[in-house]
Amino acid sequence: MNPNLPSSTRPNEFPVVLKPSMEAMEIALRVAEVDPRRTLFLDDNIRNVAAGKAVGLRTVSLNKVFRRSRLMQKHFVLVHGACHGSWCWYKIKPRLESAGHRVTALDLAASRINTKAIQDVHSLAEYSEPLLEFIASLGPEEKVILGEHQFHLGAPWTLQTSPS
User: In Gene Ontology terms, what is a biological process of this protein (predicted)?
Assistant: First the structure.
């Protein structure tokens, strides 16, 4: 993740930092403008989970989720990051389902099966429209666990703009 990339003039002007670097986690939290104490970080790599915990995130090791019975029958909603689609969850989705969970992997606007052209997406609201529509379709008492790939900025925004 490199928040300075859009302003760079040379490819090597700003370093790229990746998880499990705590610096990468801190940059992602700052860019996404989320409170780490109110953010659940899911990952299948124990080093990434440890780094997330070190910066104050609430964390879950997906390797433990698959074995832990108290999380059974949860509904996971998985949202891809930039330049991805729901396909990025191809390893996680079947593992969650085989552990008895309900899983919905969404394609955001202009991604994979969503037929909207990227040129027609002019805002974060339009990009996140499939997620907003899905959340609006949930029953008033239905709870979901939102998992996002690459700290997708639309997910925290969506949760802040959703009625419940």
Answer: jasmonic acid metabolic process
Separation between Cα atoms, residue 31 and residue 95, nearest integer Å: 30
User: Is 28 in contact with 151 (CB distance < 8 Å)?
Assistant: yes
| 3-state SS class at 76 | strand
CB atoms near residue 32 (< 10 Å):
18
In 3D, which of 92, 101, 97, 98 has the Cα closest to residue 149? 92
Digit-coded pLDDT (tens) for 43-75? 888 888 888 889 998 888 877 655 554 445 788
| Token couple for 142 | 């239905």
55-to-11, 38, 98 alpha-carbon distances in Å = 28, 12, 31
Domains for the chain: give ranges and CATH numbers: 35-62+73-137 (3.40.50.1820)
